[in-house]
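Supplementary Methods, section 5.1.

A reviewer requested that the exact input to the structure prediction be made available. We therefore reproduce it here, unchanged from the version used in the analyses.
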Amino acid sequence: MAAGTVLTVLSNIPWGTVIDAAPRIAEGAGRLWEAARNLRRTKTPQEEAGGNPPTDQPTEAERLQAQVVELEMAVNAMREQLQASAEVVKELADQNALLVQRIEVARQRIVLMAAAGSGSVLALTAALVVLWRQLP
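The structure derived from this sequence is encoded token-by-token as follows.
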């Protein structure tokens, strides 16, 4: 009986919608993955300039300014990653809501079928009792 219930629920899932949304979710997950990889590969401002670090020691202001630029780059990378993850989460939440609705419809149908089946069994039992009493 449990296998039949699972098959009923699975047959009521809008697989076309799930399959149609899968590329968007995969794309969002890919963007999220790339953002995470790029965050780990953040270059320092000196590396981005393409030059070797200067031979003389940078002043305190230059060092702080380079640190600010590096932090801004990290914040921007994190912002992109957050947006990509928010898109993936939204797509998954939409699919989850749709699946919950379909499961609720299937649950209601199962309850209705169980009630109808129980009623049929009771009616059949009553008919058998009546016929049994009429036997000589």
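The chain has one domain: 2-47+59-134. These observations are discussed further in the main text.
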